[in-house]
Design a protein that fits this description.
421 residues, alpha/beta, Rossmann fold, pyruvate-formate lyase- activating enzyme, OB fold (Dihydrolipoamide Acetyltransferase, E2P), 5-stranded mixed barrel
Length: 421
């Protein structure tokens, strides 16, 4: 039996891939550990969506070597876009780009010490099952390196998806998260789309809840919302990236909608599926973003009032259309705008939670801290509220869903109280 440590940077698709790798390694009889010094091999699933992501990937790879890693396999998007730079880092014995992830479990096993003895082990430590159902991107957003890092769009066959879900259910996962680089473009031809897949999943037995990760506005279909709103097992939460509230910038980015299109779609979503929380993301500092363009973004977000906003800074990526632009936004402006949006995001998150005080939720427990009267269960609700449940029931376990009532906004999360089912 060999010991493997797996580390992940970046998006939910990377998370899904890493969790599947750990599951396959565990099923093959190898132990998953968290300490790089104990591992025979460390696997790092890297990210390259921004220059900062690449920096973090390099930093993690170097830190693992300093912390005693014996050997490192670097995988993922950074390994795809700059394999030579990755391969030169200390301790890296293999570079596994995205193109080889289809069989990376076998490659990882081949790197383990010869003579490792298989031993039946249960894979523990995860609270939800991340399932990648779609990969690749064929959009042409001016700032994005993902098409180069991930390649052409491809969707997993329904049977493969159901097998993955079955494995997570056997491990007791009570929430399944469907992930994709372009989840809304899931397709198997002949009209079998994401809604068809969700419908087939919901026809399976079991009380697990199903969460959908990010969906692009251009891919969202009104009939999907209607169907999902009628199922108590589909988590009422959609992440719809905005990127900018300025029509000129959106057109320059290559996004296929206007701010008005986005707000109209969000309004329709709330009409059809009023329980659903909307989260979003915006880019700050895209080339040519003047004060008026930024104010347009603020105005759009104030109209949307999302439950949460992920704010990130424009990062010029080699090979993209936005690379080398001479109309860069000054760093001090980017910092000021980012801070303003993060503050607004916290304000709206608090308002969202306060507006749901007294309502019932299911809190998926992700960790438990303290003991006795200091014991607190921390987790996530179906509508993506991060919650804290002081003195949870004795039966509370990591990975299980507890019936709770929302009390109030408290220290950046939703304070909960337990309810009997």
């Amino acid at each position: 039996m060999a010991k493997v440590a797996v580390f992940t940077l970046g998006c939910k698709v990377n998370q899904a891939e890493s969790e599947e790798l750990k599951l396959l390694l565990s099923e093959a009889g190898h132990e998953i550990v968290g300490d790089p010094g104990r591992a025979d091999l460390c696997v790092v699933n890297t990210c390259a969506v921004t220059a900062e992501s690449e920096r973090k990937s390099r930093k993690l790879l170097r830190r693992l070597w300093r912390d005693g890693a014996r050997a490192i396999a670097a995988a993922g998007c950074y390994a795809e876009v700059d394999p030579d730079a990755v391969g030169e880092l200390p301790g890296v014995v293999a570079v596994l780009p995205n193109a080889r992830k289809g069989a990376w479990a076998e490659e990882v096993i081949s790197l383990l010490p010869a003579g490792s003895v298989a031993c039946a082990l249960a894979y523990e430590g995860r609270t939800r099952g991340f399932v990648k159902v779609q990969d690749g991107c064929e959009r042409s957003c001016s700032y994005c390196i993902v098409p180069r890092a991930r390649g052409a769009e491809v969707s997993e066959p329904p049977r493969t998806v159901m097998e993955k879900i079955g494995r997570w259910r056997e491990l007791g996962s009570e929430e399944i998260v469907l992930c994709g680089v372009n989840l809304g473009r899931y397709s198997q031809g002949d009209g079998y789309d994401l809604a068809s897949l969700v419908r087939e999943i919901l026809e399976t037995e079991g009380g697990f809840r199903l969460r959908l990760s990010s969906i692009e506005l251009e891919d969202l279909r009104p009939q999907w919302l209607s169907a999902w709103s009628e199922s108590p097992r589909v988590c009422p939460h959609l992440h719809l990236p905005l990127q900018s509230g300025d029509a000129v910038l959106l057109r320059d980015m290559g996004r296929g909608y206007t701010p008005d299109d986005y707000l109209q779609a969000a309004g329709e979503l709330r009409r059809v599926w009023p329980q659903a929380a909307i989260t979003t993301e915006v880019m700050v500092g895209y080339p040519g973003e003047g004060e008026v363009a930024f104010e347009n973004t603020v105005r759009a977000l104030r109209s949307l009032r999302p439950a949460r906003v992920h704010v990130f800074r424009f990062s010029p990526r080699p090979g993209t259309r936005a690379w080398g632009r001479e109309d860069a936004v000054p760093a001090e402006s980017v910092e000021r705008r980012s801070a303003m949006l993060r503050a607004l995001s916290e304000k709206w998150r608090g308002e969202y939670i306060e507006g749901r005080a007294g309502e019932r939720r299911g809190l998926l427990v992700e960790r438990i801290s303290g003991a006795g009267e200091e014991r607190i269960a921390w987790g996530t609700t179906e509508d993506y509220m991060k919650g804290a449940l002081p003195v949870p029931p004795a039966s509370a376990e990591v990975g299980k869903i507890i019936a709770v009532e929302v009390v109030k906004w408290w220290r950046g999360v939703a304070l909960m109280r337990p309810l009997s089912r």
